[in-house]
Amino acid sequence: MLTSQVRDAWADRRCKTTGLASVSFLGRGRPYTIAQVWTQSECVPAWTTAELVLYALDYGDAEIVGSIRYCPAGIAGRPCLTSGLNCSLHNYCLAYDVDPFAAGNGYIHAKVTEEDFDEDWFPAVCKFTLEQVQAVEAIRTNNGAQIFRWLGWAIGDFMHWQINCTREDLATGINLSTVYTGKDDDMETNLKALQKQDMAWYEEMQQRTGGPASGTPGGDASYWGIDYVPPPGKTGPTNDEWLRAYPTLWAGFLTASLVEGAVADGLHRGDSVVLA
């Protein structure tokens, strides 16, 4: 599907931050406050399946996964309009940025091919292997829909994975024969084990936060997304400055993860600042 078609199919979820599912994606070895990401509830089984595949192919835990982009911030700082124009699928909670920029997966604004994975420069900008990308994109619903799309192919956005089908497609269930978990592994058993871990993770989060495992993003685990929008009455970096520094927000602190060759003035990797 084209991104515009996905926007249309999920139009009622644009900019909605209530009723979301709180999950852990590639973060089972990380503290709950860092591992937490958000998605539409219909997408939870799909993301869990993608996680299972990536773990089976040795991606390991991610340093950071970004999910929500808060409206009105859309693509490249432009406002996300009701028509869907300028809206990222992050505005719909249908996309994850896995290990962005300095964490390993860059954005080169250019198409790539399978041959590029063999180039010497490629591992410096992309942590995903060709096998991992192909395995996740191979996952299908029971009616044959491709569930995920990686934007590395089209625009060199190596961090970005997005839902590539409709709710109706997802409702048919996941075709387990399309899910890679290793030659000798039983997919159903492994998926159930991962789902059991999910429940334990939810319970830990509820106990520590006193809050629900789904609902409105906020608190320590809130992820601000690529486009920084300062709270009312506050000032902050411009979108360009945010893109250059791309910090991780956790418990009110920003730890800079700088893109090589694009250093914000006075800010260095590992520095921390407080939102006052």
Radius of gyration: 18 Å
- Tell me the β content: 5-15%
Strand order of the largest sheet: 3-4-6-5
Specify the biggest β-sheet: 4 strands, antiparallel
Helix coverage percent of residues? Answer: 25-40%
List the secondary-structure elements in sequence, H or E: HEHEHEEHEHEHHEHEEE
Low-confidence stretches: 212-276
How many structural units, i.e. domains?
A: 2
Number of helices: 8
Summing up helix and strand content along with how strands pair, one would put the structural category as alpha+beta
- Kindly report how far apart the N and C termini lie: 42 Å
Mean pLDDT: 75
The number of E-state strands comes to 10
Overall shape: it is globular
Could you give a quick summary of the protein structure above?
The chain is of the alpha+beta class. The chain folds into two domains: 3-215, no CATH class; 231-276, no CATH class. Helix content is 26%, strand content 12%.
How would you describe what is shown here?
It is a single chain. Helices cover 26% and strands 12% of the residues. The chain is an alpha+beta fold. It folds into two domains: 3-215, no CATH class; 231-276, no CATH class. The strands form three sheets. Strands 3-4-6-5 form a four-stranded antiparallel sheet. 34% of the residues are buried.
Blueprint of the fold:
Blueprint: H1 3-9, E1 20-24, H2 32-35, E2 36-39, H3 44-56, E3 65-66, E4 95-98, H4 130-137, E5 148-150, H5 152-155, E6 160-163, H6 167-171, H7 187-209, E7 214-215, H8 239-245, E8 248-250, E9 253-255, E10 272-274
Antiparallel strand pairs: 1-2, 1-7, 3-4, 4-6, 5-6, 8-9, 9-10
